[in-house]
Amino acid sequence: MNQKRLSELPLFEGLDDVSLRTISKAAHEISVEDGAELVREGDYSYDLTIIDEGQAEVVMDGQVVAQLGPGDVFGEVGVVKKGLRNATVRATTPMRLITLTGWDLRRLRNGTPELAERLQALAAERAT
Fold first, then answer.
1. Which domain holds residue 105?
2. What predicted TM-score, i.e. pTM, was given to this entire model?
């Protein structure tokens, strides 16, 4: 994963070079097609996803509740709280995604405490 690209995403903005380098080694890039179901409501949450390119919709209880685009993050509530996914996310365009597994995030916690704090805050905000 490109360290410079990571630094441009809101979740990683302002992190030091050492943190970005460490995250870039753990992050994975994937591409998905329009219509792909990225995560399913009620499934266990094993990873955090950041949208690099493309658009998606968030569906809860069968209703579209949000649209997501570049820089948006999903999966943080389930990973941080080790719970079930509270929504389905479906690609509405072809997408490029950056993922970090729960295991990667736990491993990164000590070396990049600022990232852990950001994820905790984001999960707390969205869980309410």
1. 3-127
2. 0.90
